[in-house]
């Protein structure tokens, strides 16, 4: 809440001018082009631009929306953009904000994926990726460390993280089963030991004001943001139609066993499992895309994550790379249309991955706007976040194995890759360097080592 002395100094002239849909469109397009740095960096950019500079909404309203998005599966930064766009300019504003957060990254990844599959064996490209792969291993390890610091604040949560690591690393249980077991453990633990599962989110309550905002602390929700059963029914029906219609068309055109319907179905499930961010769902994507369907290889999966780290937009956009490589490699439309097959597959995967994110906001937003109290992590979600730490640690070991022992444990340790991975880990964990800078430095170092050795 704005302090009384501050409020007294705020004249009507201090209020920002109303924002048109066209002005909002230009901002969301700009955000989609510059949203590097993962969810933390993307949320920081939105806070700086929308709360501090433009004052489209207040600090408290921004964090209120963010807390809701952090409870959802899916990319919280993209969902936050969708929420703010919807709050300001109705459904059209939400769709524009969410879509522009994704589209630049999708188009860029389609281009980079094509360059990768077409020219990946060129010595220059191969040398760059030789340095990037160890950096990706360090980046995933940093993700496990970062999430673990925030989530593992009680020994019971440490036990859940350890159990999830054993379940996926030793027992090779499927990721959805691990999530379900963690949720059940959180539900039971929340009743028996509530103090252990009462973990606050990573964003504190608002405590400062940057001046009067268009949507301020006490601004009532606009008419479209007020809960209505009729409107909720329309949103859910539209969402069901937007899922069923493309899925039915793909199935009728190609048959259910075809790769395109299977990609749509698989990534629809993946979209509902992204608690804890993209790193949490990557093991599930790996199990399905690499081991079960064979759309790409383990090495290609690592390279795709590297490309995802270097492009704007949410990291979960790596699924577009998975779709492109799968469509291209399987020549879905014949050998004369490899690029078209990859691009269509990438589009299909992106559609089914992000559709739930829009529905969560458009359907749940009015319920959130009904109260401005803080939204807390429930005990099951706290347990899921703890389990995610063990899953991501498994992912780091998986990447490390394929990067450091490319021919398996029977082959020699790749010492140059180990050196690059250690340097990247020190840069990230000790000196907290920017991910893009680390990847660029490791790419140059890898090219140099590949040229000299």
Automatic annotation (TrEMBL):
UniProt name for this protein: Chromate efflux transporter
TM regions (residue ranges): 95-116, 122-144, 156-184, 232-254, 266-286, 306-325, 337-361, 381-401, 413-429
Subcellular location: Cell membrane
Topology in membrane: Multi-pass membrane protein
Keywords, comma-separated and alphabetical: Cell membrane, Membrane, Transmembrane, Transmembrane helix
One Pfam family cited in the UniProt record for this chain: Chromate_transp
Family stated for the protein in its record: Belongs to the chromate ion transporter (CHR) (TC 2.A.51) family.
